[in-house]
Structure formats: C-alpha cells, structure tokens
C-alpha cells in the first residue's frame, strides 16, 4: 500500500471494497455460529447406541458363537457356520477388542479364545512394532490372558502367561503380585466355573443337530402325522411388505415373554389395518379353522441371534385350536424352525405359512437363532 499511495485507481478500489463488503463482514462477525450444528449434534447423540445396546450386541455375538460352536479363527476370516462371506479379515487389534468386550461381560471362555488369537496374530505380524504404536503391546495381551485364564480357573495356564510377561518386564508389580496368588491357587483343585453356555444348551442341541435332507413333498407327508400343514407362497411379496410396513411403528419389546425370546412384537388388529383383514380371511378360507373371531396378528422382528420361542416351557397352556406361523422374508443363515418330533428343520421362505393343530399329541417347535440378516414373521392363534 505504501508503494500505491499515488495510484488513484487502487485507492478507489480499496474504498469501494470497504464500502460494499465491510458491512457483510460485520454481519458475519455478529452472527452466532454453530448453533444449528450444535443442535444437530445433540439430536444425533440421542440416536447413538446406549449401554443397553452394547450389552445386547455382545450377548448376541456370544449367543450365536456358543449355540453354533463358531470358531473364532474362522470368524476373523468371515466364515460363519461353514459359510464364507466376503469381508475384510480381522487382525490382532480386532481380536483384542473382541476379547476385551467378552472379558467385560465376564465371558472368560470366549475372551480367552480371542486373546489367544490376538497373540497368534501379533506374533505373526510382519511389523509388530506398528502394533505397539497403534494400540497395544505384547505385554498387554499376556496380562489379559492371565486374567482370562484366572477367571476360568485355569491357574496353571495363567501362571505360564504371567511368567512369560515377567521375562519381558521383570518389575511388573501387578503381575508379580498375581503370580504369588496363582502359585497358591495352583496347589488347589481348580474351581468349577459355571459357564453361561448352559443357558443355550437346548438351542445348541436342537439347532446343531444333523437333520435328514428330504424333499418338501416328503416333509408334507410326514407333517400329516401330527397335523402340521405347509402352505408355500401363501402370501405374495406385496402382502408381506404391506404387513411389515404397518407393523414397524408398533414394534416393541415384551418383557413378559420367556427368556428365550429376543425380539420386538407388534399386535395388529383387522379393525385398524386392511392388510390384516385380508390375511385373516385367507387363513380362514384355506385352513377351515378359526371361524370364531380373533382379528389379532402378531408381527415379530429380530436381528442377529434373535429368536421367538415363547412356548419352550413344557407346561405352556393350550387353550386354542391351532397355531399359524408365516415367514415374511428370506434369511441368509440361521433362523430355521425345527419340529423335533418330526425330525424336520424348515428354512424360512418368504410367504410360506405353517399351521398346526393342538390335538392330544403335542406339537412343539423351536426357532433357531439368526446368524446373518434380519428376520420377519407373523404368528396367530386360532380359537
């Protein structure tokens, strides 16, 4: 500017710039910035996962890993129950996080598996120093393996990991103290630890059993023996989508159901939704059962590891003539319906209806946990 004092054109441009643009700058300075963004961030914060979501997610992963005997090593490569999925392979850091989450939930059996896998991947990493900087050190994994094996009552194994850690860090105060306790505990018989796996023994026995591969015609013939009826393509795709659409706003958890139900349910009435009327009429026409008015249809929805088994208790009441189960979508893996007395396992097929009569011979069915995808179905009792 000192060099351009005599330049009238430059001074004119400067004055015009200050006259025209400066008021806009002042408006910008006075404006309260970030109010809209802060409000939006608060709205998004309310939609973020809560502690309950975290606990349920971990319980879901634990459940399918236990019920289907999923191998942790296979899971890191995208292999679930023998089926491969195109996903990025996990490394030491992901295995460590899975171990930490299971350890937090006191699932020591699985946390030990994930920590051991993290140790294998750490040692096999071409540049382990990168992991030191990135997230954790070898000593961290060894310390966690000490805790996991201690939680399992495997004191001798915990002592082995403790000694390996002390060979790296002889002055590790915590592990030195733990080793004294482990040496004492190792002289005693290990405590019998109660595994959460017992909760899922029934599902494990039913869902991992090998069932004979027979055609639908043969299944239908067998089903007549216990009054089970099978109706493929009972609902069209448009009808299933319409039923799901009206149910979404009403889906809620029912805390009064059996422990074996992890799902959301919507109770729909024909007086409120035309699609429910249409389906009720189709059920009555094709089955010849349920002439007495019962307009309610329950729509059930659940994700990974979910299932709906309210009648798993042996002494469930049978005050109705028949049960209806309609699959509203196809699923990628898991979610089969098993009839143990028939030795039949049925994969969900969109639009298929199952109907069984409650005669003197008890018709018991069980739904296996979902491994991949999202499950939709409808149920109804006929009186």
TrEMBL record:
Annotated keywords: Dioxygenase, Iron, Metal-binding, Oxidoreductase, Vitamin C
Regions crossing the membrane: none
SUPFAM superfamilies found in the cross-reference section: TPR-like
Keyword Iron: yes
Cofactor(s) recorded in Swiss-Prot or TrEMBL: L-ascorbate
Record-linked InterPro entries: P4H_N, P4HA-like, Pro_4_hyd_alph, TPR-like_helical_dom_sf
GO MF term (any one): procollagen-proline 4-dioxygenase activity
Domain of life, source organism: Eukaryota
Entry annotated with the keyword tRNA processing: no
UniProt domain Prolyl 4-hydroxylase alpha subunit: residue ranges: 226-383
GO cellular component, one term: endoplasmic reticulum
SMART domains (alphabetical): P4Hc (SM00702)
PANTHER family: PROLYL 4-HYDROXYLASE ALPHA SUBUNIT (PTHR10869), PROLYL 4-HYDROXYLASE SUBUNIT ALPHA-2 (PTHR10869:SF244)
This protein's name: Prolyl 4-hydroxylase alpha subunit domain-containing protein
């Amino acid at each position: 500017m000192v060099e351009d004092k005599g330049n009238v054109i430059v001074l004119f441009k400067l004055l015009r710039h200050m006259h025209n643009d400066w008021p806009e700058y002042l408006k910008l300075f006075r404006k309260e910035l970030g109010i809209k963004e802060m409000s939006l961030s608060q709205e998004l914060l309310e939609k973020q996962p809560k502690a309950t979501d975290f606990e349920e997610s971990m319980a879901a992963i634990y459940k399918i890993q236990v019920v289907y005997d999923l191998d942790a090593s296979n899971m890191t490569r995208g292999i679930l129950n023998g089926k491969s999925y195109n996903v990025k392979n996990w490394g030491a850091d992901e295995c460590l996080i899975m171990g930490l989450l299971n350890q937090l939930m006191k699932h020591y059996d699985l946390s030990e598996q994930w920590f051991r896998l993290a140790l294998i991947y750490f040692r096999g990493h071409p540049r382990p120093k990168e992991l030191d900087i990135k997230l954790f050190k070898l000593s961290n994994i060894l310390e966690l393996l000490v805790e996991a094996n201690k939680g399992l009552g495997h004191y001798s194994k915990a002592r082995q990991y403790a000694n390996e850690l002390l060979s790296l860090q002889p002055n590790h105060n915590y592990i030195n103290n733990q080793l004294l306790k482990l040496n004492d505990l190792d002289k005693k018989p290990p405590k019998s630890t109660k595994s959460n796996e017992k909760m899922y023994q029934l599902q494990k026995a039913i869902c991992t059993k090998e069932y004979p591969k027979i055609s639908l015609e043969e299944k239908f013939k067998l089903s007549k023996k216990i009054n089970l009826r099978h109706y493929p393509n009972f609902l069209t795709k448009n009808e299933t989508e319409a039923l799901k659409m009206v149910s979404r706003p009403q889906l809620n958890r029912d805390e009064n159901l059996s422990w074996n139900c992890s799902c959301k349910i919507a109770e729909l009435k024909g007086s409120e939704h035309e699609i429910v009327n249409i389906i009720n009429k189709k059920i009555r026409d094709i089955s010849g059962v349920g002439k007495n008015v019962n307009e309610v249809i329950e729509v059930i929805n659940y994700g990974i590891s979910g299932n709906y088994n309210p009648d798993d208790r042996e002494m469930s009441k049978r005050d109705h003539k028949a049960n209806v189960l309609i699959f509203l979508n196809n699923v990628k893996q898991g979610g089969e319906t098993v009839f143990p007395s028939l030795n039949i396992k049925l994969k969900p097929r969109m639009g298929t209806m199952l109907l069984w009569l409650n005669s003197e011979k008890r018709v018991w069915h069980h739904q296996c946990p979902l491994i991949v995808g999202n499950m939709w179905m409808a149920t109804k009792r006929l009186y």
